[in-house]
Amino acid sequence: MSAFTLRRAFRALPVLAAILAASSAVPALAQQHAHTHGRMSLDVAVDAQTLTLAIESPLDGFLGFERAPRTDAERKRVSDMVARLNAAQQLFVPDPAAECTLSSVTMSSAVLGLGEPKKEEDHPQGHGHDDTKRADGKKGHADDDHADIDVDIVFNCAKASQARFIDVKLFDAFKRIRAIDAQVATPQGQFKRNLRPDAARLNLVR
Which residue of 8, 32, 41, 82 shows the fewest CB atoms closer than 10 Å? Predict the structure, then answer.
């Protein structure tokens, strides 16, 4: 697993990193995610008192465009997206047995000016980006028509290890998202799940 993959997938997942480091013969859980419209990745780490989720998705799934907003209507769409994602407890509903409460939500998207700009080493070799002027006069990337958003969500839980599922309601809130590739890491192991609108419960046990 490359250092770039670790930074991209586990940048805000210290719990998951600890699980992976402590486990022997760990499979390559996080892979470089392809930019596919309608599809997003979701990495989930379960610890004794924490559920940590990391989303990586094309902006198109949330906004219908992948560049800086140019009109008042587009700016409102961005504002509505940010508000919905900040209310992550309405988009991701953990098993009540875990007794979880939302702790934090962090978003990063260079083209929207969200979060801290990525450092140069965060880009894989051979996939650099040229700085250009965005529509709002700020610097962006030449490939802003294929921009992503990263969202890191942390729940504090009294009994996180008792969580058997997370009900994912992103499909209802963002209709352009049609598939979620989920990867889960728990103290018992790592595995993958595929979610879709008619099967949106993410099971956290094998």
Answer: 32
pTM of the model: 0.73
pLDDT, tens digit, for every residue of 87-138? 999 999 999 999 999 999 999 999 999 987 555 444 443 333 334 344 444 4
SS (H, E, C) the chain: CCHHHHHHHHCCCHHHHHHHHHCCCCCCCCCCCCCCCCEEEEEEEECCCEEEEEEEEECHHHHCCCCCCCCHHHHHHHHHHHHHHHCHHHCEEECHHHCEEEEEEEEEEHHHCECCCCCHHHCCCCCCCCEEECCCCCEEECCHHHCEEEEEEEEEECCHHHCCEEEECHHHHCCCCCEEEEEEEECCEEEEEEEECCECEEECCC
193 within 8 A of 206, measured Cβ to Cβ: no
The residue with tokens 């099971």 is 203
